[in-house]
């Protein structure tokens, strides 16, 4: 990854007895789209506000580039923040809203006009200059809020759940637009959301937060397919958790006993020994499902369809195998009729991930 642009070093913020942000350390790469993802109340907004200079940390350091900014006031940090509720001035036109920050900065009128027009054009808001915010759609209001931030030519763009007021379809189109804008400007962006799909779709890197801490930091792929604890695995998508005990360990293959069945999977570099307990995660889309018994597959489970749901782009099955239930997603259901009754599940060894291991003679997990 490239050089860090924004660095948080052991940042803590308390409100009375609440520890909103608990010893967070995070490097945001220059030019990256980095997302803080986590459930309500986990400290995302508080972290963003500390970077913007709206809250002072109780402990720790914040750097933007080489500069430690803890004592630098908000308006001197060269950051711009877009708030969840847009906070557009209702009595001002689109043009005036976007011009506002530059005008108070004291920029001459002709220059303000030129920069505002260029930004409105860039965000496809031309022709809407004279409208007031209530004459705009949600998506347009959102773009005006973004224009207001971008026109300031910030070094770092901070976005707090900017899409949450939009309907589901608009969210998807605006998020694609936003990603394109960010990529074309190569503008270091820190984005806050509790929506895991949004985070996976938009980000170069995701910091998953839980109870004030960053519990996982990585690419979307790493966060989704290589979670390191139950919370992250569960929060970023649907998952099958499987507990087992290792019966075979070799450089090529691991074999776990899972409720009397053998499950084979690929080693991922963890130091493991026979007898260790393992917690495994397998995503629903990583499991094959068929009526006929597959031949030559490493892991085959035989079960009964308990529930099936047609979700448009996929069919989701809940399959009972002995005492456990597996969630399986079958993509592209247009070519199938829904399966029912007895089925076979196939799991490729490379799609099984060890979340945590419990060593025989150690109590702690294998992180
Ligand atoms: N000004 C404040 N005074 C007191 N407590 C606060 C204040 N701001 C935030 N908190 C508390 O700090 C914790 C973290 O809040 P924060 O707003 O950072 O969460 P969040 O992750 O942004 O959540 P959401 O997804 O709901 O916006 C919460 O327990 C919240 O109640
Ligand atoms: Mg928030």
Q: What this model shows, in words?
A:
By secondary structure, this protein is of the alpha+beta class. The protein folds into two domains: 231 residues, Rossmann fold (3-Layer(aba) Sandwich), CATH 3.40.50.300; 121 residues, RNA polymerase II/Efflux pump adaptor protein, barrel-sandwich hybrid domain (OB fold (Dihydrolipoamide Acetyltransferase, E2P)). 23% of the residues lie in helices and 36% in strands. It has eight helices and 20 strands.
Short note summarizing the structure:
The protein has 367 residues and is of the alpha+beta class. The chain is 23% helix and 36% strand. It has helices spanning 44-52, 94-104, 109-122, 138-150, 168-185, 196-202, 220-225, 230-235; strands at residues 4-15, 18-29, 33-37, 59-64, 67-68, 79-82, 156-160, 188-193, 205-210, 213-218, 240-249, 254-258, 261-265, 277-282, 287-290, 300-310, 314-321, 324-331, 342-347, 353-358.
Can you give keywords for this protein?
alpha+beta, elongated, 20 strands, 2 domains, 36% strand, six-stranded mixed sheet, binds magnesium ion, 367 residues, OB fold (Dihydrolipoamide Acetyltransferase, E2P), single chain, five-stranded antiparallel sheet, binds adenosine-5'-triphosphate, 8 helices, Rossmann fold
What is the beta-strand fraction?
35-45%
Question: How does the overall form come out from the CA principal axes?
Answer: elongated
Q: What top-tier CATH class of the largest domain fits best?
A: Alpha Beta
Through-space gap between termini: 22 Å
Tell me the radius of gyration.
25 Å
The appropriate CATH architecture of the largest domain is 3-Layer(aba) Sandwich
Structural class by SSE content: alpha+beta
Helical content (DSSP H or I, runs of 4+): 10-25%
> What characterizes the major β-sheet?
6 strands, mixed
Which cofactor or ligand species appear? Answer: adenosine-5'-triphosphate, magnesium ion
Taking strands numbered 1, 2, ... along the chain, how are they ordered across the largest sheet? 6-7-8-3-9-10
CATH topology of the largest domain: Rossmann fold
State the fourth-level CATH superfamily of the largest domain: P-loop containing nucleotide triphosphate hydrolases
- If helices are DSSP runs of H or I spanning 4 or more residues, what is the number of helices? 8
Mean pLDDT: 92
